[in-house]
C-alpha cells in the first residue's frame, strides 16, 4: 500500500515539473502579443517666437506611441508634426503658455492636431499622448 502512494507521488511531481514550463510559456506569448509603449522625441527641441518683441518658447516634446511599427510610421511624419506644433505655438501670448492650466490645454490641442494630421496622411493609431518634458518661456 505504501508503495502505491510513492508511485503516485512521483507521477504527481513529474506532472508538476512538466506543467510549470508550459504555463510559463503562455505568459511570454501574451507579452509578445501586447505592443510596448515607446517614446519618440521631437529633435531638435521646438523653439518658437511668442507674441511680443522678445518672447520665445522652448519645449521638449515627447510622443507616447504604442508599438514599434506605429513608432516607425509616425517617425516618417516628424517634419509634418514639427510644422503643426510650430504653427500652433507661434504668436501665442507669453501669459498663456506660462500658466500651468493653459499648458495642459495646449498639450491637448497639440495631441488633437497631431492626430488630425496623422489621420489625414496615414493613421493615428498607436499615438497615445503628447508630453512636454521641458517648457521654457522667456
TrEMBL record:
Pfam short name (any one): FliL
UniProt membrane topology term: Single-pass membrane protein
Record carries keyword Cell membrane: yes
Signal peptide: 1-24
Keywords: Cell inner membrane, Cell membrane, Cell projection, Chemotaxis, Cilium, Flagellar rotation, Flagellum, Membrane, Signal, Transmembrane, Transmembrane helix
GO BP term (any one): chemotaxis
Subcellular localization(s) per the UniProt record: Cell inner membrane; Cell membrane
Gene Ontology CC entries for this record: bacterial-type flagellum basal body; plasma membrane
Family: Belongs to the FliL family.
Function: Controls the rotational direction of flagella during chemotaxis.
Protein's name in the database: Flagellar protein FliL
Taxonomic source organism: Methylomarinovum tepidoasis
Amino acid at each position: 500500500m505504501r508503495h502505491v502512494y510513492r508511485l503516485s507521488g512521483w507521477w504527481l511531481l513529474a506532472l508538476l515539473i512538466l506543467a510549470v514550463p508550459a504555463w510559463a510559456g503562455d505568459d511570454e506569448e501574451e507579452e509578445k502579443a501586447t505592443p510596448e509603449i515607446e517614446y519618440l522625441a521631437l529633435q531638435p527641441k521646438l523653439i518658437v517666437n511668442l507674441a511680443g518683441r522678445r518672447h520665445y518658447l522652448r519645449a521638449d516634446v515627447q510622443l507616447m506611441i504604442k508599438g514599434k511599427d506605429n513608432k516607425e510610421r509616425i517617425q516618417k511624419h516628424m517634419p509634418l508634426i514639427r510644422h503643426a506644433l510650430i504653427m500652433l505655438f507661434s504668436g501665442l501670448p507669453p501669459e498663456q503658455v506660462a500658466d500651468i492650466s493653459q499648458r495642459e490645454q495646449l498639450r491637448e490641442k497639440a495631441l488633437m492636431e497631431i492626430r488630425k494630421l496623422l489621420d489625414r496622411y496615414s493613421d493615428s493609431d498607436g499615438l497615445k499622448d503628447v508630453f512636454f518634458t521641458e517648457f521654457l518661456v522667456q
